[in-house]
Amino acid sequence: MTHPEASRSSVSFMTSNKTMKLGYNTGYWSAGPPAGALEAVKEADRLGFDSIWTAEAYGSDALTPLAWWGANTTNVRLGTAIMQMSARTPTAAAMAAITLDHLSNGRFILGLGASGPQVVEGWYGEAYGKPLARTREYVDIVRQVLARETPVEKHGAFYDLPYTGADGAGLGKALKPTVHPLRRDIPIFLAAEGPKNVALSAEICDGWLPLFFAPKEDGFYRRCLNEGFAKSGDADKAARFEVASTVMMIPGDDAEKCADMVRPFLALYAGGMGAKGANFHFEVFARMGYEDVATRVQDLYLQGKKAEAAAAIPLKMVED
């Protein structure tokens, strides 16, 4: 991901057959588009990178930059890391996927994620409860749209298509997309950190988008993925499944100074991306063995002491 003071980063794109490829993640925007993003995207395409990725939180969206920058490429796959599910209905997300896949001649990757309760309830005004069940319904609807076999219907706990509520007009009609998808198997990747959500990505999706993946936690995550593969009922799924793991790259000779450019990012996620007791990123750092550090970082961050929170993160945690 890009950082205000960092110009380049990479995503290690690893498939289950141990083939590693490189991608480029443009990251979040701050005051505006990240400087040099278009040039970096074009260079990644020229160098033979596998993919480029965009992100969204509660500022710039993921789709518009991907289309704009992606129009200047011919080879790289174009992925969202991530499209927040609460930002769009599942049919709207499927429409965007079909559209971008056509425009890119079959290069789109639909990266989805549930985000967290602060964003979902504070920014989108939706309830956050039961994110795994909601994700399962969401992906099912998207796949129905992409398959274009029958009119889309779903009467679940979260989505009701066609709408059957008493406050509706009662005129809803089950529909298929007017556009034939270029690919009915557009890959769907799921952003996941907790064990149940990681397993869900392996069960119902085509790839996993981890955050803060530490190599020493590889065994833990493989167990989660294998649980999902077993539930999928697809004996060959593990061989096709892809993992796009983001790694922040800061070139330099002084490891501590390079780490200083990463520390504010880690402090934001450990301390500021969620409330106490409801921060999934905090839980990742705790599993890595840094619960004491994450607790101190969170306390400082929530007191508004962001610089002190960042300074409290040791080099080893950055390197992990």
Write the layout of secondary structure elements.
Layout: E1 10-15, E2 20-25, H1 37-47, E3 51-54, H2 63-70, E4 77-80, E5 83-84, H3 90-103, E6 108-113, H4 117-122, H5 131-147, E7 154-155, E8 160-161, E9 188-191, H6 195-204, E10 207-209, H7 218-232, H8 237-240, E11 242-247, H9 255-272, H10 280-287, H11 291-302, H12 306-311, H13 315-319
Helix pairs in contact: 3-5, 5-6, 6-7, 9-11, 10-11
Describe the structure.
With 320 residues, the chain is α/β, with parallel strands linked by helices. The chain has 13 helices and 11 strands. It has an 8-stranded mixed beta barrel, surrounded by 4 helices. A two-stranded antiparallel ribbon has the order 7-8. Strand 9, helix 6 and strand 10 form a beta-alpha-beta unit. Helix 6 packs across helix 7. It is globular, with a radius of gyration of 20 Å.
